[in-house]
Design brief:
CATH architecture: Beta Barrel
Structural class: mainly beta
Keywords: Signal
Number of helices: 1
Strand order of the largest sheet: 1-2-3-4-5-6-7-8
Order of helices and strands: HEEEEEEEE
Shape: globular
Radius of gyration: 18 Å
Length: 127
């Protein structure tokens, strides 16, 4: 009976464990490679699901913040970006490790497609 209660307690703790939180350094750049903003993403990972908040600063110094949510499938990250202060909407980033990248270092790059304007590129790395 005690063994059954112990197993139940362990299962409850594992189910209620907090999601993993981490910080990523992020840069946004135009499709031509001109950096437009840099900052951090506070990423919460719960299994293959991701969510968080971005705190960015444009090259001109203006702050930009937005939320995001998405998922990881294998080594590909797909993130839907929430309402941005620059009014771009319907933005989805698909990021993966660049070819020939060092597997010891977490780095992602990918294009963002937006329904309301030009897309851009996001580069991310864990802090």
């Amino acid at each position: 009976m005690l063994q059954l209660a112990t197993k139940a307690a362990v299962a409850l703790v594992l189910m209620s464990a907090p999601a993993l939180a981490e910080s990523w350094n992020v840069s946004e750049e135009s499709n031509s490679g001109i950096k437009s903003s840099t900052g951090t993403w506070a990423v919460t990972a719960d299994g293959d699901k991701l969510s968080g908040k971005a705190e960015m600063q444009s090259a001109e110094g203006a702050p930009t913040a937005y939320t995001f949510e998405g998922s990881k499938s294998g080594e590909v990250y797909t993130i839907t970006i929430g309402e941005r202060e620059d009014k771009l909407t319907g933005c989805v980033w698909t990021g993966a490790a660049p070819e020939k990248s060092d597997p010891k270092h977490f780095k992602l790059i990918g294009k963002v497609k937006c329904s309301s304007g030009p897309g851009f590129v996001i580069r991310a790395s864990k802090m």
